[in-house]
Amino acid sequence: MKIACVQMTTACDPAHNLPVIAAHVQAAAKAGAQLVALPETCTFMEKNRAAMLSRLETQADSKSVEALQEIAKTNAVFLLVGSMILAGTLADEKADKAVNRSLLIAPDGRVQAQYDKIHMFDVALEDGERHHESAAYQAGDHLVTSEINDVILGLSICYDLRFPNLYRRLAEAGAQVICVPSAFTKQTGEAHWHVLLRARAIETGCFIVAPAQIGRHENGRETYGHSLIVNPWGRIIAEAEEGDAVISAELDLSLGARARRQIPALQHGADYARPDGAPTHD
User: Fold this and answer.
1) Domain for residue 201, yes or no?
2) What is the tally of structural domains in the chain?
3) Residue 114 sits in a domain of what CATH number?
4) 40: phi > 0 → left, psi -120 to 50 → alpha, else beta; which?
5) Which domain holds residue 99?
6) Beta-carbon contacts of residue 150 (< 8 Å; ≥ 6 apart)
7) Residues linked to residue 213 through DSSP beta bridges, in sequence order
8) Which long-range contacts (CB under 8 A, 24 or more apart) does 60-67 make?
């Protein structure tokens, strides 16, 4: 299977971002990609919560979703919308929360699978940068896999990367390729991006496909970029450098089975007792 990752610098207005996405997907499809993966928050990255809320649409009514479905259909590819911000489905008192949702769109334009980001990025960095996603977003509560061309794909988003049990469980559910669309901050990306992605590949025996946001965004945020495709032995087989880019790689799925035979860590899991003696599965 040939997979492509799109790296981009998302602006506030979907009308700016969707033509950029369309051009990149078309280029990837012409180069033979069967799956094209976009980064997190690829349709818009607004300046503040009020501006974000003013753009919210439900998935069923979203013009952006409709446009992305048409892009997938026109290019006859599976399109992983790394994530987009959509209106949530909470009770009225929490109706101002959105969901950060990944969509897998089939070549016929159907939404084949969807995944809501589980782990919220609530951090305070030493340089003063702060994020509090749980104040604005409704967290997902279940893992998602989906099959494309006889390959099982696992879905995750950005901050999920720091929770290895999520990836182990996707691998135990049969995932051979796991996507990690992201908008890593420049500071955390420089420190942790490469090592975490390689670790998740090694731990699971899966290919890791990580399309990323890059650069200084209209909303003032700076993201790290370096979109990666990592093989099950932890080797980087494709990497984007600076600016908008499309990277791709042919995935030899037999490598995952070979890696798992050599180091069968997925078969060696165990339940552990905490220091206080209570059982835990984590």
Assistant:
1) yes
2) 1
3) 3.60.110.10
4) beta
5) 2-266
6) none
7) 8
8) 62/86, 63/14, 64/14, 64/18, 65/103, 65/111, 67/14, 67/18, 67/22
- Report the distance separating Cα 76 and Cα 23, nearest Å: 14
pLDDT of residue 135: 82
Q: Considering the domain boundaries, does residue 282 fall inside one?
A: no
Q: How far is CA 149 from CA 144, 175, 197, 201, in A?
A: 17, 13, 24, 21
Reported as a single tens digit per residue, the pLDDT across 23-32 is 999 999 999 9
One-letter amino acid of 152: I
Give the other-Cβ count within 10 Å of 258's Cβ: 12
Is 273 domain-assigned?
Answer: no
Length of the chain: 282
Query: Is position 276 within any domain?
Result: no
What residues in the chain have per-residue pLDDT under 50?
A: 91-94, 282
pLDDT of amino acid 134: 83
pLDDT in tens, 38-59: 999 999 999 888 898 899 999 9
Known catalytic residues are 40, 117, 158
Q: Are strands 78-87 and 35-37 parallel, antiparallel or unpaired?
A: parallel
| Segment (H or E) for 256 | helix 254-262
The dihedral of CA 264, 237, 184, 174: what is its sign? negative
Q: φ, ψ for residue 3 (rounded to 5)?
A: -120, 140
What the block records as the tokens of 199 is 């670790």
Structure tokens, 118: 């589980």
Sheet holding 228-230, edge to edge: 145-148, 151-155, 177-179, 207-210, 228-230, 236-239
CA distance 18 to 244: 14
Geometric angle at alpha carbon 98, from 84 and 153, rounded to 5°: 45
pLDDT, position 270: 63
